[in-house]
Amino acid sequence: MGIIVSKFGGWANSSPENVRKSCDLFVDNKDRKIKINSAIGKIEGLPKVTDLLIEGTNEILKTGTFPKDIFEKIKQNHYFVFEPLGIKRAQIDEILSILEDYITKKDSLEEDHFRALIVGSGEELFSRLDAIYIREIRGINAQYVDPREIGHYLYGNPLGGKILDESYKNLSKLKEYDGVIIYPGFFAVDKAGLPMIYSRGGTDKTASDVAVAVQASLYENWKDVEGILASDPRVVKNPKMMSEVTYSEIRELSYISFNVLHQEAMLPVMKAGIPISLKGLINPNNQGTTILKNRKLDSNNPVIGIAHKENICFINIEKQLMNEEVGFAQRVLSIFREHQISIEQITTGIDSIGLVVDMNEFQEKQIYSGVAEGTRKKLYIDEFIKHLNKRLSSDNVQVRPNKALICVVGDGMRSHIGVLSRVTNALSKNNINVEVIDQGPSERNIIIGVDCCDDKDTAKKAVQFLYDEFFGKK
Ligand code: ASP
Question: How much of the chain, in percent, has pLDDT values that exceed 70?
Fold first, then answer.
């Protein structure tokens, strides 16, 4: 078939049973050639290894010592997973001495590179032990491969690096290795060999970059959930599982709220046309969900999923003869840009323009602009609105908080007559007023905005009504 790249996240790596099951998958299917690992996730009573490493790094940078109790917890995590699998404590301690050694590098590295070295080490510790288990205990031909040796280079921010193009060529050499490759996610190095990591959750990124480099036939992502549901199960009872969904559909849903894969991780595999299979380790034989370029559309249902996002505000700007002022919209957008406020939707009238904004945009936030990264301070919305009004010499600017967006998505909606009327009918029948509406030019999504001032659950109810309309109860 081709090479399958399989990624195992923190949850999959946080119990001996899961690690054993993950290994079984490589016995069952010989096309599984590359196992990409996160660090150990949350174990009862203990935090995630990456979180412990972050805490320990903060402390050592402040006080000069890596706290003993944190190191002890990291050890306990590894004993918990690997001792029942037959790995001796002394062997585990030997691998953990790698972290001890890294801790001594504090004064020889710049702060962010030192952070990257320590924070990214959870993936290395786990993967080295996993390779010992797979090779020595299970007798499978397997080896640990280190990103530093193969030339997995990142550039930019040491704590949120991006892949350098030449890394793909270097990583493609993984195809030539014999047996199963155990490859740690999240960390790499820059061209000078200094420690780097991707941003948080970056093992998804490592796996997608490796999948592209080896031209994988499939990128598997093993999770604690069986696949992707058509709606949030906290809102809709027993939503249907998607068996297939396209990259574009999932992008639309993730943009609103679906948390499927590290957003940046999908783009390279999407460009390369590599299907992504999301599967649950609990029942590995279940089909799961495959994300791919094109899917067979269901002639009975044009919709694949319904997402929603609360805590939205509408900002309405009014100005007489706005439509005659060439460049007005650009001026509005540039003020939002200056303040690093991202806009969800824009609606227009002849003398008014409406912007839909997530309220979290006003909180302190991280800024990514090319390779440089910084923090934008919290903004006070009333002050921002006054400023907007003054800069635009507008007649009135109004903020209306407590709104929500609901996004109905499906490739089947394209050229399908009547979807919009079903959406609005399902809501009007249930007394829900649509305040804004937007259908993307791809005809793959319909976004509507509703008010939640009188009833904070309006958006959730609307999702349920729409779900019933397209998936269920008739
Ligand atoms: N361990 C890292 C984190 O928690 C990377 C990952 O799990 O993907 O962010």
Answer: 98
